[in-house]
Amino acid sequence: MQKVSYKKGILNLTLLLFLFLSLFMSRLVCSPLLSTIQKELNLSYTMTGNIFLFIALGASLGLLLNALIANTITHKKIVFLSSFFSGIICISIYFIESYTLFLLFVFLMGIVNGGYFPSGFSVITSFIKKKDLGKAFAYHDIAPVMACISVPIFAEVILHFSSWRSCFVFLGLMQVFMSFLFLLFGKGGDYNSKTMNFATIKEIANQKVFQKMLITTCIAVSAAIGVYAVLPLFLIKNHHYTREVANQLIAASKFLAPFSTLFFGFITDKFGQNITLKIYCIFTGILTCAIGFFSGKLLVVVIFLQAIAITSFFPTFFTCIHQIYKKEERGIILSFMNIFANIIGVGMFPFVSGILAEYNRFNLSFIILGVLVFLTIFLQPFSEETN
Description:
Blueprint: H1 10-28, H2 30-41, H3 45-69, H4 75-92, H5 99-114, H6 116-127, H7 133-140, H8 142-161, H9 165-185, H10 198-205, H11 208-239, H12 243-253, H13 257-271, H14 273-293, H15 296-309, H16 314-324, H17 327-358, H18 362-375
Helix pairs in contact: 1-4, 1-5, 1-8, 1-9, 2-3, 2-11, 3-5, 3-6, 3-17, 4-5, 4-6, 4-9, 6-17, 7-13, 7-16, 8-12, 8-13, 11-12, 11-17, 11-18, 12-15, 13-14, 14-15, 14-18, 17-18
């Protein structure tokens, strides 16, 4: 397929953006619903942390499956299958009554949901010119930001009229609709990735650049998705917010994030990845730490600023991957990085935060994470290609 500029590919990018949005909302929706689910199913803080751990484990397995099947199924078909089956599973959650079955279904949702990302990335690189990839990834990455804004509002509206289970039904229907829309009108991704075998895995794992990027992305995902997942519960438990106010604050904090995501995409294309990555390490590290220290109005300001700072990472990181790795390798690289990033960032961070919350040390999770984010500045640059 002939590659086009960012402007000419905007319609196809927008279709991918909304498909990614529907998938990401289903992974995040448990966060604003957590206190409601906790009360209805009579869960401890550790048990609520397990929900995110199971979603993360499922998503990691989905990423692994993507790497295994992408040599036989085109990336376009994988995107369709991921969205379609994620929607079916979400709709099925409506009928779940027990905690055990709920964990099983969110695990299954994570599997099919997780298969999207490497293929979505490959679809973008197949039709957008290299010089515009920073902007394209930034635009695509508005989806997680939009999900962070819309999920708390969406959850509160549904809870006003129905139960938390209805949230999954609406998201499921949206995913099924988007899957067919992309299948019929989406462009790009009509190719396969490199075959994955033990030799390929060993070769990748032994690369120092891969090791540095893996550590960095695990910590970054913790600071983005992990923090977002536990923040409502943290505000309710430690700062005595009501569920409604906590969800409204978190949604409001993300309103500037779409603009900052695009801004950092342009900065990456203009000045290079290293400058943007250093901005991410310094500001996100300090602000994540500050969430654990501050209270009152200062805490609100810090939450808003942290939500902006974290958006500097992902468009820059994807541009790095495009520069360092060959076309056939990128899907495998993203799969393996996201496997560990999901387990640690989306799964382990909320799980550990839940344990600390049991011992009234919830704030320590943010302080420790902030220090780790800051320390990743010593892993830059990833390689000479990004220098």
